[in-house]
Each structure stands twice: as structure tokens, then as C-alpha cells.
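User: Design a sequence. Structure:
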């Protein structure tokens, strides 16, 4: 049976919510993130504003220069969270196997739901209608045999559309698209590839693995695999809901702009560790080995793995090791392009690796993390932080990271990150 993955992405989410509350904004260029003279950055722009070159993460003042007629709004995180939960509630009706990837997008594993919802395209239209009915907000849905293809498809389906890429058609469909369409390829990679005259995904897909390996390392080989529609590499080979027997679980984050901000880098490590360990717990496993992945601005990539003193499913244990590995490899001021956290070497919790001394306090922490996991099930991965699962001094940073997930609302003067 072919896997069927949906990627649902709300269209200009913040702007759409604002328009629900004030219909006079319909059809007009709207910028959410702050006043036109404020120092912050754009967190969302309507399609009308994007036509003038306005995009998220751009300084508000630049946006005002490009599109002076735009209406500037401060944004309302409470309202966006509310609608995010509404979206999540609709998704839950279609499948429990879902992952809120951010406040306004989700992956759904719809494999084997044919009897319940009909063929994938019909199911997607029902979902599209259900979202519109409950939230009155527009969204787009991509259907593919993998997360990667589904995500690219939803982007191509915008606005307010549904697009299915049939199994076997992935490579041919991706080929004519610009390389930038692929999650994980940002401006820097785009420029790097352009030096080799590679501008389309089909051109990237055709490259020889050996050439890619020498030019970009394993990462380049993975990238070409993605350009052929294969799900290689961390996030996109991840799981949706419960599945059996993973060999490793990992999450990666590519910064929109290379960062040397120690606090932001640390907050990202916290988030990645949380996501990975959440899945480890979902699978009822203990991780024996953890690995840090670090890619610098010049594309040098290194991975450092370490065996845990005792296998664990607790964020804190893993984070401690990840931080140590990071501190060993990163010098202040160095610009980082990508961070990744991976867990492997799994065993099951009843195999007795836990020392008796730790057992009691670990049990308490485990219960707390379970509660956090449940909240995340309800409200989405990024809406709830597991600050409670970490010691006090990390709470502020986790909270900080959450701000980023809300795409800089209200203005924090911080650059936007995306999980691309
Ligand atoms: Mg969106």
C-alpha cells in the first residue's frame, strides 16, 4: 500500500484571521507584525502585499517603503492560537496520526483511510470543506507519498487549493520547479547551486552522487534524493503519529539566515531535543545514543555522537549531552546554518537500564512530560513548550523560542526562523 501523506497549510494565516475579524481588510494589502515605523519585522503579509515584494522576516520599515498603501497591524497571538486549535480539532476528526508542524500547518498520515474517507483527493476536499466550515479560513492541501512531496504540493496548490501528486510521478513533477521550492534549500544553497548552473530540481536530481559528495558531502547526496522525491534526511523521514520500530529519530532546523546568536542556537537545540524525545516517548523507547549535527555557514558539516551513561527518554538527559557536544564544536561568533538532534540505539524501558537511584525522580519527570505530550496532542507541537520538563534556567529560553514560532509576534527585533 502506498503511503498517503497530506500537508495542510493555512493561507496567509495571520492575515486571514485578521480579515475574519475585520472584513474591510479583504482584497487589500495587509502586513501583520507592527506599525509601519516600528523597528520589528513582518510576521505575515497578504498576497496583495507580497506582490510588492513584501515578505515575512523583512523589516517593517522596508515593507512600508515597498508598499506604502499597506495596512499595518500589530497582530494578536491569542486569536491565532485559538484558530490553530480549531484547525487541530478538525484534523483530529480525520486521523489521529497527525503532526502540527507549526501554528498553521500539519502533516496527516492518511494511509489506509480509504474506506472511511474515500480516495485521497476526495478525502482532501472533504477536509478542505471541513476547515472552511469550522474556521471560515482558507487553506491549501498537498497530497503525496511522503511529507516532502506533500509539503511542496501544498505550496503549489496555494491559494485555497488541493493538489495531489500521484505515486510514481514525484520526480517528473518536481523536475521543472526552481530548486528553492524544496524545503531545506534557502537563499545561500540556491546561490551555491547556481554556481554549478543548477537552477531546477530536475537538474539537481540528475547530478552524480559522487560529484555531490565531494562538493557538498552527504547532505548534497540527500538533497539530490529529495529532488527526486525521496524522503531523505531528518525531518522529512520523521514519523507521523505512531509507527513501529524506528532505527533513529531526528529533527533538524535550517535557519532562514545563518546565526551566531548563542542564545538562539541554544533555544533551537532545546526545541529539537524536545521534539525528538517526544517521539522517543511516543514509541515507548529509551535512547542510548544521541547525536548533534552542525552545519556552518560555509556548508562544513559535522556530526558528533555520544552514548548516554544510561539509556533515557527524558529531555534533560539528552539535552545535557547535546549541549556539551555543541559547546565543544562551536566557537562564539561562528555562523551556524543548520542544527540537528538525533536519538538512536533504542531499547525498551522495561529492560532495566535505569539506575535505581534515578528511578524515582525520573518517574516524576516522566509523568510531567507525559502531560506535556498530551497538551501538545491537543494544541500542537509548537504551541505548548515543555518548560516544566527542563530546569528553571531554561524556561526563559524555551519561551523565547516559542516567540519565534509565533513568527516574531509581537515585534522582538529578531530574525524569523522557519522549519524549512
Ligand atoms: Mg501558512
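Assistant: Done.
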Amino acid at each position: 500500500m502506498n503511503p498517503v501523506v497530506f500537508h495542510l497549510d493555512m493561507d496567509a494565516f495571520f492575515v486571514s484571521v485578521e480579515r475574519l475579524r475585520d472584513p474591510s481588510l479583504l482584497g487589500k494589502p495587509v502586513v501583520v507584525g507592527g506599525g509601519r515605523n516600528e523597528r520589528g519585522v513582518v510576521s505575515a503579509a497578504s498576497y496583495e502585499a507580497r506582490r510588492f515584494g513584501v515578505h515575512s522576516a523583512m523589516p517593517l520599515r522596508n515593507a512600508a517603503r515597498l508598499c506604502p498603501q499597506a495596512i499595518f497591524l500589530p497582530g494578536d497571538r491569542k486569536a491565532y492560537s485559538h484558530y490553530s486549535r480549531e484547525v487541530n480539532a478538525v484534523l483530529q476528526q480525520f486521523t489521529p496520526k497527525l503532526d502540527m508542524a507549526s501554528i498553521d500547518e500539519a502533516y496527516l498520515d492518511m494511509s489506509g483511510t480509504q474506506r472511511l474517507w474515500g480516495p485521497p483527493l476526495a478525502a482532501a476536499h472533504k477536509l478542505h470543506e471541513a476547515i472552511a466550515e469550522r474556521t471560515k479560513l482558507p487553506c491549501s492541501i498537498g497530497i503525496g507519498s511522503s511529507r516532502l512531496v506533500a509539503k511542496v504540493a501544498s505550496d503549489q496548490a496555494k491559494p485555497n487549493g488541493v493538489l495531489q501528486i500521484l505515486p510514481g510521478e514525484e520526480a517528473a513533477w518536481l523536475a521543472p520547479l526552481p530548486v528553492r521550492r524544496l524545503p531545506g534549500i534557502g537563499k545561500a544553497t540556491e546561490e551555491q547551486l547556481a554556481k554549478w548552473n543548477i537552477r531546477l530540481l530536475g537538474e539537481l536530481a540528475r547530478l552524480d552522487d559522487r560529484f555531490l559528495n565531494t562538493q557538498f558531502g552527504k547532505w548534497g547526496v540527500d538533497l539530490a534524493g529529495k529532488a527526486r522525491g525521496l524522503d531523505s534526511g531528518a525531518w522529512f523521514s520523521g514519523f507521523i503519529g505512531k509507527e513501529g520500530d524506528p532505527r533513529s529519530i531526528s529533527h533538524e532546523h535550517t535557519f532562514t539566515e545563518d546565526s551566531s546568536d548563542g542564545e538562539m542556537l541554544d533555544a533551537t537545540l532545546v526545541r529539537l531535543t524536545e521534539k525528538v524525545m517526544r517521539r522517543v516517548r511516543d514509541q515507548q523507547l529509551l535512547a542510548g545514543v544521541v547525536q548533534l549535527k552542525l552545519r556552518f555557514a560555509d556548508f562544513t558539516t559535522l556530526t558528533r555522537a555520544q552514548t548516554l551513561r544510561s539509556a533515557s527518554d527524558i529531555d534533560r538527559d539528552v539535552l545535557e549531552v547535546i549541549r556539551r557536544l555543541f559547546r565543544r564544536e562551536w566557537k562564539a561568533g561562528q555562523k551556524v546554518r543548520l542544527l540537528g538532534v538525533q536519538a538512536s540505539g533504542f531499547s525498551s524501558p522495561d529492560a532495566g537500564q535505569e539506575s535505581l537511584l534515578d528511578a524515582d525522580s525520573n518517574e516524576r519527570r516522566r509523568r510531567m512530560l507525559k502531560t506535556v505530550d498530551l497538551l501538545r496532542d491537543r494544541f500542537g507541537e509548537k504551541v505548548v513548550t515543555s518548560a516544566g520538563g527542563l530546569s528553571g534556567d531554561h524556561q526563559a529560553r524555551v519561551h523565547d523560542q516559542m516567540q519565534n514560532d509565533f513568527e516574531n509576534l509581537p515585534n522582538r527585533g529578531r530574525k524569523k526562523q522557519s522549519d524549512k
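Confidence is low (pLDDT under 50) at residues 232-245, 351-357, 381-420. Residues 356-379 form the longest helix (24 residues).
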